[in-house]
Structure formats: C-alpha cells, structure tokens
Amino acid sequence: MNKILKSIYMPILAVIIAIIIGSIIMLVTGFNPLAAYASLFIGAFGTLPNIANTLANAVPLIITGLGVAIAFNAGLFNIGAEGQYWIGAIVATWIGYSFKGLPWYIHIPFALIGAMVAAGLWGGIVPGFAKAYTGAHEVITTMMMSYVAIYFSHYLLEFGPMMEKGSVPQSPLIKDSAIIPTILRNTQLSYGIFIAIAAALFVYWLMYKTVWGYEMRAVGFNQRASKYAGMNVPLNIVLSLSLSGIFAGLAGAVQILGVQHRLYDSFTSGYGYTAIVVALLAKNNPIGVVFSALLFAALGTGSQYMQLNAQVPGQLADVITGLIIFFVAADKIIEVLKSMFKKQKKEELAS
Amino acid sequence: MKEILLNPQLWSATLAMATPLALPALGGTFSERSGVVNIAMEGIMLIAAFFAVLFAHLTGSAWLGLLGAIVVGMIVAVIFAWAAVTLTADQVILGMAINIFASGFTAYLLNTIFGFSGTPTDTPMLPNINIPVIKNIPFIGQILSGNSVIVYLMIILIFASNYFLFHTNLGLRIRAVGENPEAAETAGINVIKLRYLGVALSGLFSAIGGAYLSIGLLNSFSTDMSSGRGYIALAAMIFGKWTPFGSFGAALLFGFATALSMQLQNSAMSKNIIMMLPYILTVLALVGVGGKSVSPAADGVPYTPKK
C-alpha cells in the first residue's frame, strides 16, 4: 500500500500544482477559477450522458496510451503514436466500407486486426529496424512517419481513392456490420470501452507476468546488461515499437467503428499526443494508464462545458495538461522548492 | 510543370517558406551541438508569434513586436534550460510539455485578449526590403529582392552562425560540451553555462522565426499557426548534419516542397504526396542513405557536474 502511495504521490502533486497555476492564469485574466473548475467537473461527471462521454473520450486515450507505455517500458519514446493511430483508422475505415455481407462477428474483428497489423508494421518496421540496426533515434523517425501517415490520409481523402462521392473530403460510411454499437443512446460511449479495459489487463499481464514483457523491460532498463544476459536487444526493440504501433492502430480502429463510423479529413486526432501524456502521468503502468486517461478525458469533455457555462476558453485544459507534464518530468522542482522552504525557515529562526 | 518552375513566384515562395524552417533549424543546431535536444522550439515559435502580434499591436511598432517576441521566447527557452540542464529532466518530455502548454496558452490568450474575432487588422507588419540594382535584374530580382527583412536577417545569421560555431573559441567549446562533457569539464569548461547558452540561442532563433510567421508573412495570429514547423526544423537540422549551411540547404529543400505544393493547389493528390517528401527524406538520411547523419555524441544526455 505504501509503495502504491509513493508512486502516485508525485503525479498527484504535479496535477495539484498545475491546477493552482491554472487558477492564477484565470485570476489574472479576470475569471473565477472556482466557478470554472466547478463547471469543468460538472461537464465531465455531472450527468449520466456526461459521464458516458468522458468514458468514451477515455477509450482511444487508454488504448493508445498503453502502446506508448509499452515502448517507454522498453526505453523507447514513441512520439509517433498519432500517425499509427491514423494508419489504424484508415485501414479500419477501408475494411469497414468495402466488404459487404459479412456478419458482424467477422467484420468487426477483421477491421480491428487489419488496423492493428498495418499500424504495427508502420510503427515497428521503419522506426524499429532503423533504431535496432542503425541507431536512428526513434523520437525523430516515429515523428517523421507520423507526418507521412497524416499526409497519406489527406491524399486518400482529398480527391483521392477513399473520398466519398461529392465535394466533402471524407470517406464513405462503414457498413452496419462493422459498427461497434453504443451502450448509452445519444452518447459516444460504445462497447469499445470493454476492448480498452481488456487491452489494459492484457498489457499488464504481458509486461509483468511473461518472459517477453520481462525482456522488454530489461532492455529498457539497461541495454548493455540485457545483451550480456543473452537477450536479443534488436528483436526486443522492434517488438516493443511494433506493439506500440499495434495498440495505436487498435485505438484508431475502435474510434472509427465505435464513434466516427467514417474517416474525416483533419490534421490531428489529438489522441496520439495526449496518449504520451497519459502514459507519462501513469508512469507507464498499464493500470495507471486507465486512470490517467480518465483524467485527461475528463479535462477534455469538461473544458467544452466550461467554455459554454463559465465562458473560460476551453484551451485552458491544454495549459493545465502542459503544466502537469512539465512538473512530472521536472520532478526535482519539488526538492528545489523544499530546500528553499527549509532555508527560509532557518533564516527566520536565525533572525 | 515547366511553366511552374519558370514562375519566379515559386522561387520567392521557396525562400519565404524556408525562412521559418531555417531559423529554428539554426537554433536547434546550437542547442543540440551543446548537447540539449530542444523539441520545445515548436512551442517557442508559437508563443513568439503570439507575443509579436500583441506587442506590435500595443506599441504600434512591428520592431517592438519582434523585440517582445524575442524576450518572451528567450524566457521560455531559459525555463526549459533550467529544467533540462539544471534539474536534468528528460528533454524530449519537457519539450512536449512546453509545446502543449504553448498551444493552449496562446489560444487561451487569443480568446481572452482579442476575443473570438481574432487579432486586430491594423497590426503593423515588418517591412519588405527592395535591394537596389538586384531588383532590376529580370527573374532574379523578383526572387531575391522585395522579401521580408527577416529573410535577409536569416541569411546573415546563417553565415554568422557558421563562423561562430566553427571558427571561434566559444563555438569550439559549445561543440566540445555536446560531444564529451566530461572531457570538456576536465579542460576547465563550464558545461552547464554553455548548455544554457545553446538553448538560449535556440530560443532566440525560434522566436525570430515565430515572429516572422505572424508579423513578417502576415499581420495576424491564429491558433497553432506554427503548424509543426519547429518539428520540421529539427528534421532540416538532422538532414543538414547539424551545421548552419546544411540546415539552410535542407530548409530550402523543404521550403521548395511547400512552395511547390502551394502551386499545385488544384491537383490535390500530388500536393499531399509532395508534402510527405521532407519527412521521408529525413528518415532516409537518418538510416544512412546518402551519407549517414550522426548526432553529437552527448546529445540529449543530461550532465551532472562533478565537484
């Protein structure tokens, strides 16, 4: 119990400091932070549909966040989850609308698996092999591949092969047999939430209860030592980046089949980047990812409500997100503050 | 195709689009040569772009707008340096945090200060400069003359940076700190100070690049207007093998891809394919096709001085 408390102490402190700085920004710009946070909370959890939408928002964050966490566990920074998400979404959409007459129990798994394979290859093959055999930094390669994926989706949708007839850059709707049904009517919450929870349990089992997970974590902890212990380091690098891509792709597919039902032309889903934040705050623990995804999903749904009801621009959520990550990364700030506080006390005593 | 290539607009647009990539690429070169990976340049550009408009609007002078943008950009860079160098936090994560913060903070301020209608239309712009003699040469004159003052500033900075980095003592020290901080410290060099300098310079150049976007090319700010240029600049820097001239060359190439895709507005297919090229080229450069790009040895590794 004490161990758990210790590991969640820093992330919670980071959230609190970020909320306080957010309040200061609101005060300076003439808003009432208490009213803003209250409406943010109501927007996220106030009614049953609001709760459902928060949960729905958490689904892609949980699944993508798990992927990012796997790579982090292996000491790799998959900053390109966004692109892998797009590849998954593209493939799931394509399978979703091009195959007719399949029963749902074949069509849905087909779309999900197709998306996972494609995104796994996208994230695993180029960045994975590049890292394993030439040392090319995965932060840059995954980021570059991400842009390629996004432009690829523009190419497909803007007068390209996946564009629906007409002048709107979007794909056709997927067939009914590929739709993951909604749980609560008029909300975005689909049965995809169970896929997300199952994924979290699976990743926990994989990373902490199997040899493969142990090896990936060992490589992340110390590559040289793992190599001398006889582990195949390049294989584990490719494997963990592929798994990272597989989950990002699954997230894209679940979002298409469960919520959007078609592919829209847009520059960012936002999930790929927030997923990194989710994994960081959870300290890459798969179960922690679920809770941290819920927090950021709540910030997302709550901030829209806050903008409507307290007139505070919703982008405040991004300000707070950025601050949280800053303080999680720079956790030594706490020590600096502590030592400053101690010094002040000493000086007070001396005078 | 021939018609497009002979259009001087394509080439002046190449220069205009290369400038906001070359400046942060140059900044990134300093930062990474000193051993700090700075992906926060994207956020610094965005913040600078916003404050350039704000200060230009408040003072009525585009030059004071540029100055304000530089001051704010460098403050953010120094905060980043403090967390990354002094507190030895993970540089990529910090950079991401600053980018998310910058995106939210500028959009928040845009809405609270200027309202939902956007920045005022009477915001002053930095001047364009006509070069005597050259401006009268056909074709060449249309490309090289009449650009924003920042374009010419950028070209001067490229040469100055190359001189500074490779022909001065301080430049040599910055490079030493990024390659082998232990050895540099043994030789009496202050690793921490030089890394602060590297990051501060990246803040300076990114801020000029950001101000160029909002008060050089336009006279307004819109949310997320840096649109990934800080990241593309990193790619240009890598493609240019961490040198000022290389970064500039890569920025020109990437700027050309952007300019060409703008000319090809009507055939959307080729436009998006062309936009992919810079990213594919960068991956190829990293894995070693056409001469491998190798980063400074201590790039991205925090250093704790031995005392």
UniProtKB/TrEMBL annotation, chain A:
<keyword id="KW-0472">Membrane</keyword>
<feature type="transmembrane region" description="Helical">
    <location>
        <begin position="110"/>
        <end position="130"/>
    </location>
</feature>
<feature type="transmembrane region" description="Helical">
    <location>
        <begin position="319"/>
        <end position="337"/>
    </location>
</feature>
<feature type="transmembrane region" description="Helical">
    <location>
        <begin position="7"/>
        <end position="28"/>
    </location>
</feature>
<feature type="transmembrane region" description="Helical">
    <location>
        <begin position="34"/>
        <end position="52"/>
    </location>
</feature>
<feature type="transmembrane region" description="Helical">
    <location>
        <begin position="136"/>
        <end position="157"/>
    </location>
</feature>
<keyword id="KW-0812">Transmembrane</keyword>
<dbReference type="InterPro" id="IPR001851">
    <property type="entry name" value="ABC_transp_permease"/>
</dbReference>
<feature type="transmembrane region" description="Helical">
    <location>
        <begin position="271"/>
        <end position="299"/>
    </location>
</feature>
<keyword id="KW-1003">Cell membrane</keyword>
<keyword id="KW-0762">Sugar transport</keyword>
<feature type="transmembrane region" description="Helical">
    <location>
        <begin position="189"/>
        <end position="207"/>
    </location>
</feature>
<protein>
    <submittedName>
        <fullName>Simple sugar transport system permease protein</fullName>
    </submittedName>
</protein>
<keyword id="KW-0813">Transport</keyword>
<dbReference type="Pfam" id="PF02653">
    <property type="entry name" value="BPD_transp_2"/>
</dbReference>
<feature type="transmembrane region" description="Helical">
    <location>
        <begin position="59"/>
        <end position="79"/>
    </location>
</feature>
<keyword id="KW-1133">Transmembrane helix</keyword>
<feature type="transmembrane region" description="Helical">
    <location>
        <begin position="237"/>
        <end position="259"/>
    </location>
</feature>
From TrEMBL, chain B:
<feature type="transmembrane region" description="Helical">
    <location>
        <begin position="62"/>
        <end position="85"/>
    </location>
</feature>
<dbReference type="Pfam" id="PF02653">
    <property type="entry name" value="BPD_transp_2"/>
</dbReference>
<feature type="transmembrane region" description="Helical">
    <location>
        <begin position="230"/>
        <end position="260"/>
    </location>
</feature>
<keyword id="KW-1133">Transmembrane helix</keyword>
<keyword id="KW-1003">Cell membrane</keyword>
<protein>
    <submittedName>
        <fullName>Simple sugar transport system permease protein</fullName>
    </submittedName>
</protein>
<keyword id="KW-0472">Membrane</keyword>
<keyword id="KW-0812">Transmembrane</keyword>
<dbReference type="InterPro" id="IPR001851">
    <property type="entry name" value="ABC_transp_permease"/>
</dbReference>
<feature type="transmembrane region" description="Helical">
    <location>
        <begin position="92"/>
        <end position="116"/>
    </location>
</feature>
<feature type="transmembrane region" description="Helical">
    <location>
        <begin position="149"/>
        <end position="166"/>
    </location>
</feature>
<feature type="transmembrane region" description="Helical">
    <location>
        <begin position="6"/>
        <end position="23"/>
    </location>
</feature>
<feature type="transmembrane region" description="Helical">
    <location>
        <begin position="196"/>
        <end position="218"/>
    </location>
</feature>
<feature type="transmembrane region" description="Helical">
    <location>
        <begin position="272"/>
        <end position="291"/>
    </location>
</feature>
<keyword id="KW-0813">Transport</keyword>
<keyword id="KW-0762">Sugar transport</keyword>
<feature type="transmembrane region" description="Helical">
    <location>
        <begin position="35"/>
        <end position="56"/>
    </location>
</feature>
